[in-house]
Amino acid sequence: MSQSGVTVGVGHAELMEASPYRMEKKKLGMWIFIVADACTFATFLFGYGYMRVGSQNWGTPFEFPTILNGIVMTFILLSSSLTMLAAVQATQAERKASAIKWLGLTMLLGTVFAVLHLREWFKMIGEGWRLFSNPTGGAAQFGATFFSVTGLHLAHVISGVIALLIIMRGYNRGRYDGSHVETTGLYWHFVDLVWMFVFPLMYLMNAR
Amino acid sequence: MSSNQEPRMGSYVGIVIGLMIIVGIEVILTYRHLPARTLLFSLLCLACVEAFLGIMYLMHVKYESPLLFWTVFPATLFVLVLLNYVWPDAYRMARMSLFK
User: Fold this and answer.
1) Which of A77, A108, A122, B54 is the least buried, fewest Cβ under 10 Å from its Cβ?
2) What's the CATH fold of domain A26-49+61-206?
């Protein structure tokens, strides 16, 4: 295994050049995932735009209470980004208890967001909204685009809460370190930023 | 692993409050009942400002190697520009002609 004092096969990573990105592999991997996921969301939003432009009777069905619910959800998600940043800073300062507290608060805010979102969905379903049925008489594709775009985002929020739970437990037990929290934070901020496009396009553009 | 000079918590609070203010502006613009195209353009511009602030400061791209920015963003923008191929067909569907 060893020739001329150089060990080959085991533990030779340090002999290789440092990453030009000057970041850990898991963080770079998360960035690559984020780019791919951003393209997925963009495709869904372009699909919504295509349906909307191609329809002559799209309509603007959302009353103010629905918009207000969206505003509250937006503020909750933005606040959760702040608590996530606080958690990352606490891990960097090696304040474990504080990091756990902020991660727990981020999960709580994410859960509240998901509950408000599902409440809105169930209210709409109760009013007769379906994937291909519009109770207001407008374009039938409204339900399909609304539920698919917001559903994809909701799935990301719920996945994020589960990921945060796993990372928090691992960090508490010493299995994961601050870099894992930081990488999960990147995902959480991405989900937050996607909502900054979903909210105006799916809610505000459809406000009565 | 990010470089030094990362902002303090106070800066983050300022950025998040800024994002909330932009959301407030979006809602105000919506209820001024602007023409759909003007509203769409305004909302997209504001959303892009929010995304820029979020990516640069909350996601720390400003404090990472510039190589990350130049690897990730031109490629993503290229994909987003390519996605615009759908509009001529959307106009054709609605009006049975292009851009009339």
Assistant:
1) A122
2) Four Helix Bundle (Hemerythrin (Met), subunit A) (1.20.120)
Write the pLDDT tens digit of every residue in A145-169: 999 999 999 999 999 999 999 999 9
Rounded Cα distance between A31 and A118, Å, is 29
Q: Report the C-alpha gap between A157 and A144 in whole angstroms.
A: 20
Residue B59 to residue A85, Cβ atoms within 8 A: no
How many C-beta atoms lie closer than 10 Å to residue A48's C-beta? 21
Asked if A81 contacts A189 with a C-beta cutoff of 8 angstroms, the reply is yes
Give contacts of B 15-74 with A, CB under 8 A.
16, 19-20, 23, 26-27, 30-31, 36, 39-40, 43-44, 46-47, 50-51, 54-55, 58-59, 64-65, 67-68, 71-72
List, for residues A32-65, the tens digit of each pLDDT value: 999 999 999 999 999 999 999 998 889 899 999 9
The residue assigned the tokens 């939003």 is A45
ipTM: 0.91
A65 touches B42 (CB < 8 A): no
Q: How far is CA A80 from CA A19, A198, B21, B75, B95, in A?
A: 31, 17, 16, 29, 44
Q: How far is A145 from chain B (nearest CA, A)?
A: 15
Determine the length of chain A: 208
Closest chain B C-alpha to A77 CA, distance in angstroms: 10
Residues of A in contact with B87 (CB under 8 A): 49-50, 53
| Secondary structure class of A50 (helix, strand, coil) | helix
d(C-alpha A81, C-alpha A172), whole Å: 21
Per-residue pLDDT of chain B (100 residues; tens, 9 = 90+): 444 567 789 999 999 999 999 999 999 999 999 999 999 999 999 999 999 999 999 999 999 999 999 998 999 999 999 999 989 888 888 877 655 4
